[in-house]
Amino acid sequence: MQFEEIFGDDEEPDEFDFVIDTHRRRFVGLLIDTSRSMALAQTGGMAAIDALNLHLAEWLPKVRAEGRGQLRDVEFVVITFGAGGVAVASGNRKPSARDDGAFVPAARLTLGPLEAGGATPMVEAVDLALDLVEQRRRHVQEVHGQQCGGPRLILITDGEPTDFEGNPTDEWRRLAVRLQQSRETGRLMLFAFGVPGVKDDVMRELAGEEGYFRLQDLDLKRVLDLALVATAEHVGYRRVADKFEDGF
C-alpha cells in the first residue's frame, strides 16, 4: 500500500497558513538516536547516519505534503540524542513550547543534516519530549483556546540508554513507569522503532508490547515510512502493527 492510499494526495504543499481557531491540534515528538553507533553502523555501503539523512531528505516532503491533508493539525517537535547531547532539531532549535518555538506545523517541517557521535541519553530525550508536548498543550489551550488531541512520541534508536558520558544507566526504569501511567490514562501513545543494536527488553518496558517494533535489519527508510503511518490520527497500535507485519 502506498502513502496516497493512507493519507490521500501527496502533492507538494504551497505556502501554508496554519489555522489556529477551528481545528484541534495534535503534537508529535520525533526522537532520533544520533549516537556514535549511528556513525559506525553500515547499511547499503554507507554509514547509518548518512543513510538516515538521505532517507530524511525523501521523507520530509511527504510530511509537508500531508500537512495539507491528514496531518493538517499536527505539529512536530524533533529531538536528537547523541551528538551534542539532547538537542531540539526543529523550529528555532530551542526547547520552547511557545509559538514560533520548537514546534513546527507538519506542512513546514524541515531538518538540517544530522550528525552522529557521543553517548545515548535516551531517557533525557524522552523526558524532554514529554515535558515539551505537555507545555505546548497547555499553551495552545490557554493562549489560543483550542482543543488538543493526544500527543504521540515516535522513538527511533539502535542502542540502549546511557548517561551523557556513555555509562549504562537504570534511569529508564523511572521513565518506564511514567510512560506506563500515560498509556493507561490515554494521555500518550509511544511508538518505538528499534534497529539492530537496540535493547529489546528496555524498549518493551518503555513502549509496552504493542508499541515496540523491532526491525531485523538497518532499514531506515522503512522505519521512517512506518513513523509517518503512526502520525495519522485514526491510526493506532494495531494499524501500525499490521503494516509492520505486512512488510510495509
TrEMBL record:
Entries under SUPFAM superfamilies matching the protein: vWA-like
InterPro entries cross-referenced by the UniProt entry: VWF_A, vWFA_dom_sf
Source taxon at top rank: Bacteria
Residue ranges the record marks as coiled coil: none
Lineage summary: Bacteria, Bacillati, Actinomycetota, Actinomycetes, Micromonosporales
Residue ranges constituting the VWFA domain according to the UniProt record: 27-232
Biological source species: Paractinoplanes lichenicola
Protein's UniProt name: VWA domain-containing protein
PROSITE patterns per the UniProt record, alphabetical: VWFA (PS50234)
